[in-house]
Amino acid sequence: MCSGNFAKCLGITLIPLAIICVLCNILLFFPSGKVADQSQDITDEVFYLGGILGSGVLMIFPALVFLGLKNNDCCGCCGNESCGKRFAMFSSILFAAAGAVGAGYSVIVSCVALNHGPKCFLSDGSNNATYPFTDGNYLSNRTMWELCAGPGDIVTWHLTLFSILLITGIVQIGLCAFQVINGLIGTICGDCCGCCKE
């Protein structure tokens, strides 16, 4: 498979993953699918926008670059027909690195959020949302989830969405790493399909 075709496949895969991350981050602003009474009731890590900025916006740019590599027609420089393709493949390495950094940010935010647990209202009837869990102790002890009286099933909501962000971010990092390797091959060897076809 040509390096340009492979990059296009990666771009096609990254776009839906970026959309999933943006949607998950937006849903986290609505604890258990409900509108929060005040912003203090929302888990702090949601405002770090790991899914919107990291795995979302920062991932769209590399995806679009990867999609355009196959159709790149910048042929010929200094008498060498393939150098335009080689430069495009080299620039894709930089965009892949930027995408990996964004996805890495999302992964870190998700790990911290999963470790802290959600903000929720305690079963003692207090009106202020707080963090009842520490150091991820609730992950292995489901009976602790009863400490949270609401909103709704907030622990499951929190775990599900941040887990999706975590897994999706790891997949994005892997795809960007593949493009770094693919970009190096394309830079050194050129696009095996050729650049200028008469």
UniProtKB/TrEMBL annotation:
Annotated transmembrane regions: 12-31, 46-67, 87-108, 154-178
Entry keyword annotation includes Transmembrane: yes
Highest rank taxon of the organism: Eukaryota
Entry's localization field: Membrane
Xref: Pfam families: L6_membrane
Keyword list, A-Z: Membrane, Transmembrane, Transmembrane helix
A GO-annotated cellular component: membrane
Mode of membrane association: Multi-pass membrane protein
One biological process term in Gene Ontology: endocrine pancreas development
Main location: membrane
Keyword Transport on entry: no
Family: Belongs to the L6 tetraspanin family.
Protein name: Transmembrane 4 L six family member 4
Origin species: Danio rerio
